[in-house]
Amino acid sequence: MRHRVPLFHTFLKAIERMPESLIAIMDALPYLLQGSIVTLIVVVGAMGLGFALGAPLAVGQVYGHPVLRRFIAVYVWFFRGIPLLVFLFLFYFGLCTALDINLSAFTVAIIVLGLISSAYQSQIFRGSILSLPEGQLKAARALGMSDFKAISFIILPQALRLSIPGWSNEYSILLKDSAVTYALGVAEIMARSHFVATRTYQHLPLYFAAGVIFLVLTWAGTKGLRLLEERARIPGYSPHGL
Amino acid sequence: MTEGWLYIQTEVYPALLKGFWVSLQLIAPSALLGLAIGIMVGVLRIYGNRPVMAAANTFVAIFRGIPLVVQLFIWYFGLPHIGIYLSPFFASVLGFSLCSGAYHSEYIRGALLSIKRGQMLAAQSLGFSKIRMIFSIILPQAIRRALPGCGNEIIYLIKYSSLAYMITCIELTGQGKILASNSFKYTEVFLMIGACYLVMTSVASIILGRVEDRLRIPGFEHRRT
Amino acid sequence: MTAPILRIENISKRYGKKDVLKGASLDVKKGDLKILIGPSGAGKSTLLQCINFLVKPDEGRIWLDEQEVHYANKRDLYAYRQKVGMIFQDFNLFDHLTALENVRIGMVRVKGMGKAEAGERAVLELERVGLKEHMQKYPAQLSGGQKQRVSIARALAMDPRVMLLDEPTSALDPELIGEVHAVIRDLGNNGMTMIMATHQIGFASSLASEILFMEDGRILERGTPDKIFNHAENARTQEFCSKITELYGERG
Ligand SMILES: Nc1ncnc2c1ncn2[C@@H]1O[C@H](COP(=O)(O)OP(=O)(O)OP(=O)(O)O)[C@@H](O)[C@H]1O
Ligand SMILES: [Mg+2]
User: Fold this and answer.
1) Quick count: other Cβ atoms within 10 Å of Cβ B40?
2) Cβ(A175)–Cβ(A217) below 8 Å
3) C110 partner at 20 to 30 Å CA-CA among A13, C122, C188, C231?
4) How far apart are alpha carbons C162 and C31 in whole angstroms?
5) C109 and A145 in contact by Cβ < 8 A?
6) Beta bridge partners of residue C68, listed in sequence order
7) Residue-wise burial string across A176-193, b where 16 or more C-beta atoms lie within 10 A, e elsewhere
């Protein structure tokens, strides 16, 4: 601490600046809310990409050839072992330049978050697949289904249902991680609140507002996924009741 | 070739070593503080009286719901608004500890809830006070159950320590950014940085696995919850 | 002398160092009900699962309708499995599908029938096992006996030539066994060819065309129910039969 300030004084100072803080927040709100649309697009895009890659990875890791399993394990280890920020820098400043691909920060953000999420999502699905009784696959095979059909029609529909809670968790993680893409200049909530803060000198109120927006988005998304869980619900069939 | 080697020897290596050291200084105290906060908050969320429980739950909801970057910005750029100035390092440790404490408390809470009622009845029948019972009977069991989750949290912390860079605390990632901006060797430098983090997270997960094995009690396996 | 529907020759299986099946052979004629009995670990389940290649046998050959089954050929294997129905001890109903959908899915996804047509057939099969009014329920909403009857309907809907039943009633409460036995008895009376492992010897002896006593991976003795239960030649068979009679009583 550089200055020692009596707590009381601190408190007074906050009160004193309250009106201007409120005005600053109100002024910035539309701008911040536009940012939340950017945030949501990044999150939904990353989740979609993560799902599209994660589901086959999970199937491969459970049913695949040992070499494939090994490869997927390394993939997961790699994408879970390195910070998001490092990946963002590596892809945006490094690989995009080295390979001479011209991608916007926004696109890179979705790709990087999606790749990392695919590693996490694959482990969610893998856990769900492994938690299914072995007899399900046997019974499907006994009916004459190929392994591909058995996995598509019997295993995955059940595994995906069991994965919804994990998925809801993944959403809230991605939502929070998306704030890191500010480092590349993606115009999401965090970037915008920082932009306004440095102009109005109302740092605390604006970050506070950003925080509240994130809280609301987390809450809304979790609620939405819980609704999905209810709708996909099958009597006597829940991850906790198995 | 030799030029590249020279660059690594004279520039990269010392910078990364310095950065690595700062990262460790960020991670170690944050991990310990975070765990302590997590255990305390977790216990309060189960055994506290109503207002305490509500306060602890609110703490967790806020610190888990707001992105860590935003929290760090609040501590570092926001607090001066009310006349409190923290160093980048201190703000980072504060931010990491509070946030990871909130996450730890979730695992501790879940573990506490999973302890069978009979354990408490038995302790009470032996005349344990509530506090004694929590510390000598319940927590030793709960911590074992919470260990896999808390271990994961510590690995997250290692990765999220990179965010300190964003509030100008120059650790491993920050050193990398400086190196790369000077030499324009972004790919090479960030691959090296990535490798450093991979080593840290892998070593941590091996150590945590060992700890789990060491604390294992027969018949006390963690059940899927 | 009619040719057997299913011919099983010299099936062997080992897990690691343990020989679980040591050359089991068996001919099944149309309308036969072969009952497999024997102590736990004898290899009854393994044999049944080998018969439709859910477990790949290490040795041995199988013919269905005088055609040898080459299980390495996937197309052959899937076609063969459609013709061999399997009933499991623990039902293995698909937990995400209703009773009706459970019965329908094989017809739709394996046989390629239309949903409507398959649905009609599924209702018929469920009616046959007395569960028409429960067809919209999920497995978790059915009793054990009902689940097992759905699984029988699921197998029947594929028009199997042969049914394999692995202790179909041993996971059921005693009062639910009767309803499943009634369905199986009905199948037998309608000429279904079956191989069944069971401990319910009362039921077995009233229905079986042949009893096979298995122990330690071998079929030790075979014959009519009367021969096996009352005049067994092998001392082990006698011992097992007297034990199991004591345990499960005369009537199943
Ligand atoms: N996947 C497997 N791996 C190793 N050993 C196995 C496996 N499956 C079965 N066995 C062994 O094979 C032997 C025969 O098992 P099987 O289940 O066929 O017996 P069973 O006659 O059906 O017994 P039960 O009456 O208990 O059902 C047992 O000793 C069992 O331990
Ligand atoms: Mg068996």
Assistant:
1) 15
2) yes
3) C188
4) 9
5) yes
6) C63
7) bbbbbbbbbebbbbbbbb
Which residue, judged by its Cα, is nearest atom 26 of ligand 1? C40
Q: Flag whether residue B168 sits within 8 Å of chain A, measured between CB atoms.
A: no
- CA distance to B8, B191, B223, per residue, from B2 (Å): 10, 20, 55
3-state SS track over C153-217: HHHHCCCCCEEEEECCCCCCCHHHHHHHHHHHHHHHHCCCEEEEECCCHHHHHHHCCEEEEEECC
Measure Cα distances from C225 to A71, C170, C206, C216, C221 in Å.
56, 20, 8, 21, 11
How does strand C6-15 pair with strand C59-64?
A: antiparallel
**What would the two tokens of residue C170 be?**
């041993």
| Of C54, C86, C92, Cβ closest to residue A136 | C92
DSSP for residue A9: H
Q: Are B172 and B197 in contact (CB under 8 A)?
A: yes
Sort strands C210-215 and C6-15 into parallel, antiparallel or unpaired.
unpaired
Ligand 1, residues at Cβ distance < 6 Å: C 15, 20, 38, 40-46
Contact A139 C158 (CB under 8 A): no
Parallel, antiparallel, or unpaired for β C33-37 and C193-197? parallel
The stretch A107-131 carries a mean pLDDT of 96
Closest Cα to atom 8, ligand 1: which residue?
C46
Closest CA to B94 of B156, B157, B30: B30
Beta-carbon separation of A234 and C96 below 8 A: yes
pLDDT tens sequence across A16-39: 778 888 888 888 899 999 999 999
Question: Quick one: closest CA in A to C75, which residue?
Answer: A146
Q: How far apart are the first and last CA of chain A?
A: 53
Judge whether A38 and A187 are in contact, CB under 8 Å. yes
The H or E element spanning position B49 is none
Residue A15 touches chain B, beta carbons under 8 Å: no
**Residues B119, B141 contacting (CB under 8 angstroms):** yes
Which ligand 1 atom lies nearest to the CA of residue C55?
1
What are C83-138's pLDDT values in tens digits?
Answer: 999 999 999 999 889 999 999 999 999 999 999 999 999 999 999 999 999 999 99
- Looking from the CA of B219 toward its CB, the CA atoms found within 13 Å total 0
10 Å CB burial of residue C31 (0-12, 13-18, 19+) is middle
pLDDT score of C252: 41
Interface contact A143-C105, CB threshold 8 A: yes
The overall average pLDDT reported for chain B is 89
Q: Contact C138/C42 with Cβ under 8 angstroms?
A: no
CA atoms within 13 A on the CB side of A32: 24
- Residues A195-236: tens digit of each pLDDT: 999 888 888 999 999 999 999 999 998 888 888 888 887 776
pTM of the predicted protein model: 0.85
Cα dihedral sign, B92-B95-B99-B102: positive
CB of C88 within 8 Å of a chain A CB? The answer is yes
**pLDDT tens profile B26-58:** 999 999 999 999 999 999 998 889 999 999 999
**What is the rounded distance in angstroms from the CA atom of residue B11 to the CA atom of residue B188?**
13
Homologous superfamily assigned to B2-215: MetI-like (1.10.3720.10)
Per the listing, tokens 């290649």 go with C53
- Report residue A86 as tokens: 């490092």
Is a pLDDT exceeding 70 seen at residue C61? yes
